[in-house]
Amino acid sequence: MNAQKSVTGFATIFPTNYPTSYGYHFNFGAQREIKPGLVIQGDFVSRQFLRRSFGTTVDANRFNSAEGPVIPRCTGTQSTDPRAQCSVDAIQVRDPNARSSYRGLLVKLDKRLANRWLLTASYAYAHQYSVLTIINKRDWFAGYGEYGSRQVFNVSGVLDLPKGFQISMISSMSSRAPVNPGAVGGAATDIDGDGTATQWLPGAGVSRFNRGFGRRDLTRLIDEWNNTYGGKPAPRGGTISRLVAPSGAYQFGDNFFSQDFRVTKVIPFRDRYKLNVFGEVFNAFNFANLGGFAYNLLDPGGFGRPTTRAGQVFGSGGPRAFQVGTRLSF
Questions:
Q1: Are strands 256-269 and 273-282 parallel, antiparallel or unpaired?
Q2: The whole model's pTM is what?
Q3: Nearest to 208, CA basis, from 225, 221, 227, 197
């Protein structure tokens, strides 16, 4: 094993023969021309990625677990004795055995440029899975679940107008990603004593909210937590926190929508030269596209409340923005 000093002061251990991640890709599709210049295509896509990092280091020593660390805790003068077979802290390991997968049905309609206009519309219905976080140090795959938008739809088109004008547009839409409400409170929410600070609601599974679970399920699971665990002794000492159901207009994430337009004036000169003068508007309908949601039930006031907007900087999806520019081609 090789170790390097991390910015947190802990040693991060890498396997001596750290493998390169790899993936298996499978694609099957069919394409048909509906009429000249108009083609529809459908594809089934499967991708399996292996030997991936878990995205964070994992305490293989389980130093803070209720049963104690894997390597016995040092006592007395053992902590300064290099020969002592004991440990004084977590042993952070960068493990390369995570995996992720993508399964998707992709449909595309393509209208090639003819009669002054072209159009492309694409739709994806997908399932994406990965280890979202380490929620159980005894079972690193306990946090394996779905992530990302299940449905994505995009449309783009260009229309040529008389006198060198051109109008183009891009529409982008995607559905909410699944979320995992829980409690982050150290020993006070570590109901199984494995040493993690984050505990997702028991009975909710992984990535079920926005995938069939909603507000009523959240209230029910909070009641079950309080009846089963709340106020009782915690495996690592102290008392397990009771949870308070959030109130008000909280939400489990947000859909994404953006509509962008461009108007271009093409000015040809000197045979080979063209000057394009254009004006653009991003997110023309000023959809909020909220983000920055937190789902910590120990902070019911901030639960499910947005703190940012997607695309805080200038561009598609952010607050409505305008831009003018020129481009010289030759």
A1: antiparallel
A2: 0.84
A3: 221
